[in-house]
Amino acid sequence: MAKQHVTTTVNNDEFEFLCEPKASMLDVLRDELNLTGSKEGCATGDCGACSVVMDGRLVCSCLVLGVEMEGKSIETIEGMADGEKLHPLQQQFLDHAALQCGICTPGVLVAAKALLEKNPDPTETEVRYWLAGNLCRCTGYDKIIRAVMDAAKEMRAA
Amino acid sequence: MDNSMDVGYSADDKELKFVGKRTNRPDGVDKVTGRARFGADARLPGMLYGKILRSPHAHARIISIDTSKAEALSGVKAVVTRDDFEDRDSEFVPAGEMMVNYRDMVRNIMAREKVLYDGHAVAAVAATSVTIAKQALKLIDVQYEVLPHVIDVVEAMAPGAPLLHDDLFTDGVEPKPTKPSNVAKRLEFNMGDIASGFAEADEILEKTFDTKPVHQGYIEPHSCLASFSENGSAELWCSTQGQYLVRAHCSKLVGMEISKLRVTPSEIGGGFGGKTVVFIEPIALALSKKTYRPIKITMTRDEVFRSSGPTSGGNVRVKVGITKDGKIMACEAELKYQAGAFQGSSVQPGCMCAFAPYDVANVNVIGWDVLSNRPKVAAYRAPGAPISEYAVECVIDELAERIGMDPVDFRLKNAAKEGTQTAYGPKFGPVGFVEVLEATKALDHYKIPLGPNQGRGIGSGFWFNIGGETCVNLNVNEDGTLTLITGSPDIGGSRASMCNMAAEELGIDVGLINPIIADTSVLGFNFLSAGSRTTFACGLATIEAARNAIENMRKRVAQLWDIPLDAVVWEDGAARPASSNAGEFEPMTLPEIAKIAPKTGGPIAGHAEINAQGAGPGFGTHMVDVEVDKETGHVKVLRYTVIQDAGKAIHPSFVEGQYQGGAVQCIGWALNEEYVYGEDGRLQNSGFLDYRIPLASDLPMIDTKIVEVPNPNHPYGVRGVGETPIIPGLAAMSNAISNALGLRMSELPMSPPKVLKAIKEASV
Amino acid sequence: MASGETEMEVEATSVRQIFRHLQERFPNIKSHMVDDIAVAIDGTVFQDAWLEKVTENSEVYLLPRIGGG
Ligand code: FES
Ligand code: FES
Q: Containing H/E element for A122?
């Protein structure tokens, strides 16, 4: 099948590319746009390592087609820090040692940011259920949950 | 290693500035911004994509492989099969630091005479895109003669079971067997007189337990990028727990000199033992050798489950005899561990660990290494130990209950301590099991009252911990900063721990040290980041390299001041005269010494090349409260505490992280995780949807209690902490569920249908 | 041990010498066994330590080498 022309915005930068019709958004981000911060843990929507925000909605980029990026605005982990200033979530993850190997971290951070934008004052249970789509095999989630709760507190105070 | 190295100033000897502190993680920012490069994040110009054709059969003879159609497909640049890998002799040879049978390994990489499990590699292609590579796989014509298969370990041992290898004869039995079987090995550990031990016991309990294979479940699939040059050398980038072992295996399997292969470890997205072996790396090299183009291979999640190594499932019979007042008199166990399609399960450490936590005079443990049509197992933290210790800890718990003794008191009464003779060999040096149990008893958690259908469970565990070959370089840069070069992949923050130790030794700010993890061309051999060795062994080498750098700096200063070396001491990051007798000199700081290094003899560095010995055994106990829904069989974890002796926590956050992560892996292993095979011998749950690892929403916070009983063989007392946390939780979970239900379960996972079945059986 | 012996006294000053004694006494010990064996000297485990010193009355245990995950 012929490749399709796609114009899209990722982290406020405009991109144009030719997309294989079967390629996922994750493939496009990683292979075409060289944004390898989004990770592939499963490619079946089960692990959340590929989480990105598309027009304000949290999605697994492995389940979205590259051609669906047309006209959309995408936010990935690479767009989370503001220059050298880390997002409060990123800083809290470091302060809490909420990552061990760090492969799940980009997806968890993107998902947590989407949560706090919707719900600035989540309960522990709400954080746990929101992040239930993001697998982490290293940490047992304890420090991740604490980091998200503390980031929420910090952002509310700001 | 130089054992005269001054060990044993313990944590309390002086105020520690960085050791034991929660310092910044040097690789942290890159990992929260997406910049860190993991296995699949590398590319090279002209790169091709490799894909692997895998067996759909559990057991079949390969009659023929026709790759001509695939090769003819436009965009396909190379195909490799068994013919591209030279056969190797069947003997165990030292590779790196391990004993490896390359005849088996070459067959596991790429099937030869037979495919031995669903997912076994049969051929591989390199093409200009993943899509073309996948199309090409469909064009490879493999003719199979399907053979009967066997999945279960007990069935595989039975006479008449389908044979995986007709040249495998059981080792370790007398007389030597004349017929081949699936049993690779029998081993036995004995101490005292088991019969008289049981004769002295008042209560004897014998039970058999069953566990299923589980996968390490690292979130990052195996990935590598290989590039062969026409000059016969090659570069390999991959996600691994040990670049030097990858180099050892690949150079052997591909047939090249070690110096010609340069392996660079990527950041690693979890390993837990599963990334201590090679699968795709030799294939990528072979494809690259055919094309002289870079080849990238990344496993899919399905391939990770079907074709990389899970850990063994096991069948374990345990018999323990105790006196009325709770003294263990005799312990007996028989362990049958699945090795997968090739010999080499972790039954040996399973045997050695089984009763190691307890001071018992009479012990007999027999182990069997059994093959079946499953992927060859790999380590999963503390390989072998969780399975045997789970069974033992369940029996111990039930016996304590029978004589009406508190389960912690029972363990305390029998706990191994310094001087206890183990059944596997040595007497223990200083160990912290008693301290762990005392800390357990003191926890508030232990006193929280439980509600209906709730139960509390305790389990304990032991792992040896190891040292091993390690090299470290510490370069003093001209601006007074330092570059710390180690060869141990960092799986969970170890770079920060190394910097803490180096900064402590040097008396400088930890932020001045920048750590990197070297490729194989930079340093001499380093063993794997495995066996809980990194903070211990790489830490020892780091300390030695720092002391070496300090000595070199003192030498420079002694020459400048024209006084003997002894007259110069190193304190708080500066060289100083040892006493007023040495003369009046202003202290020289590290940056000052570094700045004038060119004038005093050139660059300054510290080095260590050691084989670290004297690792300190690790003991831990887990305590968990659960609530069981008797209608559905669902188990909810209410509270969980990990208590473990770290020796010394160099970076407490990452020690806690190891405890918490291990505990949650225990919960998954205990409640849900298992390999499910169909009648056809094919794996039915090769994805995270059906192979369900714990989610954030399944869990409570995981509390931790770090106990510190220093290891006398490490300057700061480090033991190593990564392995032990995977052991105690299986029994703790089982004992908790048993206490909640008033019945004893003896198989894993305790998934809802199995819990319901147990409830039903108990009610008839 | 090969012939069922489990305990013996040898005169040696290093681990390597102990291994030599063993190989002389039990010629059937395969060489890989020696590669794949660890020793514990007075409670401390040495995975590879041919040159490790032993003294009079040292208690030396042979055990399999340990790997890990
Ligand atoms: S890679 Fe998209 S959910 Fe796992
Ligand atoms: S930190 Fe390794 S998977 Fe989450």
A: none
Any domain includes C49: yes
- Compare CB distances from C69 to B379, B419, B427 and report the shortest one's residue: B379
Q: How far is CA A65 from the centre of its chain?
A: 16
Same domain, B335 and B187: yes
pLDDT digits (tens, 9 = 90+) for B543-588: 999 999 999 999 999 999 999 999 999 999 999 999 888 788 999 9
- Please name the residue of chain B whose CA is at the shortest distance from the CA of residue A146: B701
How many domains are contained in chain C? 1
Q: Tell me the one-letter amino acid at B419.
A: G
CATH code given to domain A88-157: 1.10.150.120
CA-nearest of B336, B355, B395, B353 to B206 is B395
Q: Is the CB of residue B452 less than 8 Å from the CB of residue B727?
A: no
pLDDT confidence of B1, banded at 50, 70, 90? very low
How wide is the angle at C-alpha B200 spanned by C-alphas B197 and B202, nearest 5°? 120
- For a ligand 2 pocket test, name from A47, A51, A137 the mutation site with the most ligand atoms within 8 angstroms of its C-beta: A137
Whether A80 sits inside 8 A of B33 (CB atoms) is: yes
Measured from the CB, is residue A49 less than 6 Å from ligand 2?
A: no
Q: What is the spatial distance between Cα B720 and Cα B728, in angstroms, rounded to a whole number?
A: 16
pLDDT for B583 equals 83
CATH of the domain at B191: 3.90.1170.50
Tell me which residue of B470, B538, B530, B489 sits closest to B272, measured CA to CA.
B530
Mean pLDDT of B19-46: 97
- Name the band, by pLDDT with cuts 50, 70 and 90, for residue B5: very low
Residue contact A101–B219, C-beta within 8 A = yes
pLDDT tens digit sequence for B429-465: 999 999 999 999 999 999 999 999 999 999 999 999 9
Q: Averaged over B46-60, what is the pLDDT?
A: 98
Q: Residue B367 is part of which domain span?
A: 44-380
pLDDT above 80 for B764:
no
Give residue for tokens 């074709």: B307
Strands (E), B119-193: 121-127, 141-146, 183-191
Does residue A25 line the site of ligand 1, with CB under 6 A?
no
Strand partners, B588: B575
Q: Quick one: pLDDT band at residue B98, thresholds 50, 70, 90?
A: low
**C-alpha to C-alpha distance for B161 and B183, rounded to whole angstroms:** 11
B239: helix, strand or coil: coil
B188: three-class secondary structure by DSSP: strand
Beta bridge partners of B237: B225, B264
Please answer yes or no on whether B24 and A38 come within 8 Å at the CB atom: no
Structural domain includes residue C69: no
CB contact under 8 A, A135 and B695: yes
Inter-residue contact C60 to C54 (CB < 8 Å): yes
Classify B713 as helix, strand or coil.
coil
User: What is residue B171's predicted lDDT score, i.e. its pLDDT?
Assistant: 94
Nearest residue of B to residue A80, measured between CA atoms = B33
Q: Do the Cβ atoms of B377 and B719 come closer than 8 Å?
A: no
Percent of chain B with pLDDT over 90: 94
- Taking residue B763's Cβ as centre, other Cβ atoms within 10 Å add up to 7
Does this model's pTM top 0.90?
yes
- Chain B interface, best mutation among C3, C5, C6, C44, by max B CB count within 10 A: C44
State the pLDDT at residue B11.
45
